[in-house]
C-alpha cells in the first residue's frame, strides 16, 4: 500500500471517528433525537410483532433514517444559527422555521409509511 492510499484510509477512519462522536452528541444531548429513537424502537418492535415483510422493513428503516437525518440536520442548523446570532433575529427565526418545516415533511412521510404498513394489520 502506498503513502497516498494509507493517507486515504487514515483519513476515512478519522472521519468515521468524528461521525461516531457526532452521533453520540446527538443521542446523549438532544431530546428530539432521544424521542425519535424511542419511537424507532417501538415501531421496530411492532415490525417484529406483526411480522412485516422485507419490503415493509425496507420502507420502515428508510422512514426511521429519514426522520433521524432530518432531526439531526435541523439540530445542526439551529446550533449554527444560535452561534451566529445569539439574540432573537427575524431572519434567523425564518431559517430555523424552515429547518423545522423540513422535519415536518419527513415526519408526515414517516407517518404515511407507518399507516400504509400497520393500518391493514391493525384493522
From TrEMBL:
Its EC number is 2.7.1.-. It comes from the Bacteria. The keyword Lipid biosynthesis applies. It is a multi-pass membrane protein. The keyword Kinase applies. The chain crosses the membrane at residues 22-45, 57-77, 98-119. Its main location: membrane. It holds the Pfam family DAGK_prokar. It is an enzyme of class 2 (transferase). One of its GO terms (molecular function) is kinase activity. It is found in: Cell membrane. Keywords: ATP-binding, Cell membrane, Kinase, Lipid biosynthesis, Lipid metabolism, Membrane, Nucleotide-binding, Phospholipid biosynthesis, Phospholipid metabolism, Transferase, Transmembrane, Transmembrane helix. Belongs to the bacterial diacylglycerol kinase family. This is Diacylglycerol kinase family protein. It comes from Lutimonas vermicola.
Amino acid at each position: 500500500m502506498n503513502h497516498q492510499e494509507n493517507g486515504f484510509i487514515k483519513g476515512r477512519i478519522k472521519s468515521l471517528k468524528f461521525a461516531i462522536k457526532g452521533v453520540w452528541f446527538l443521542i446523549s444531548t438532544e431530546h428530539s433525537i432521544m424521542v425519535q429513537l424511542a419511537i424507532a424502537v417501538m415501531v421496530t418492535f411492532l415490525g417484529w410483532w406483526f411480522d412485516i415483510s422485507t419490503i415493509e422493513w425496507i420502507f420502515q428503516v428508510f422512514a426511521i433514517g429519514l426522520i433521524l437525518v432530518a432531526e439531526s440536520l435541523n439540530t445542526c442548523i439551529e446550533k449554527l444559527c444560535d452561534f451566529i446570532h445569539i439574540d432573537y433575529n427575524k431572519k434567523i427565526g425564518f431559517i430555523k422555521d424552515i429547518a423545522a418545516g423540513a422535519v415536518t415533511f419527513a415526519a408526515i412521510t414517516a407517518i404515511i409509511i407507518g399507516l400504509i404498513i400497520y393500518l391493514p394489520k391493525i384493522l
